[in-house]
Amino acid sequence: MIVIRQYHEDDACTVGRLIADTYSEYNLSCFPPEEVGKFLGPFRHAHSSDPAQQAEIARMIDSEMVFVAEEDGEIVGVLRGRKERLASLFVRGDHHRQGVGRMLVQRFEDESRTLGVRVIRISATVYAVPFYRAMGYQRSTGLRRAWSFDGHGLPVQPMKKKLSGTDSNS
């Protein structure tokens, strides 16, 4: 059974590896191997045991809202965001199409509603656009090329979703 919970700082190593592995495989596979590290930034060191590198990864994960998906005590997904902005969503490949991403996004949307958020925005990677469309997000502009740490040229699709059930006066 999948459980969605708040991220804890002691999750940083596992979450860092999850981000590095899934980002590389699903979003950065179109780039030459020598360029991937630029896009990963500190996450390129996710499998290192160096305390300084691990501290930097933990710092990068930190955000207003961070949720993890666990199955049998093992982290299989993570979502980071802040008010009105879903920053990133990563689900381990062997858990794709099992509802993990949907549960994480729903938790983020529920938390956002309680904060009075009316619209959530995201810069979705091309790989993730079909998922977000299925979740009710709509394209808000044309495709863009974005920065990710020291890498440039990552194709992203700006998207947004108006949340239902929010106070229209907020």
Number of helices: 5
Whole-number tally of structural domains? 1
Q: Which stretches are low in confidence, meaning pLDDT under 50 for 5 or more residues running?
A: none
Strand percentage: 25-35%
Which CATH first-tier class would you pick?
A: Alpha Beta
User: What is CATH's topology name?
Assistant: Aminopeptidase
Helix content estimate: 25-40%
Q: What is the CATH superfamily classification?
A: Gcn5-related N-acetyltransferase (GNAT)
Keyphrases for this structure?
globular; alpha+beta; single chain; Aminopeptidase; 5 helices; 170 residues; four-stranded antiparallel sheet
Question: Mind explaining what this structure looks like?
Answer:
With 170 residues, the protein is α+β, with helices and mostly antiparallel strands. The protein has a single domain, classed as Gcn5-related N-acetyltransferase (GNAT) (Aminopeptidase), CATH 3.40.630. Helix content is 33%, strand content 32%. It contains five helices and eight strands, in the order E-H-H-H-E-E-E-H-E-H-E-E-E. Helix 1 packs across helix 3. The longest helix has 16 residues.
Describe the structure in brief.
The protein has helices at residues 12-27, 33-40, 51-61, 100-114, 129-134; strands at 2-6, 65-71, 74-82, 85-91, 119-125, 138-139, 144-148, 151-162.
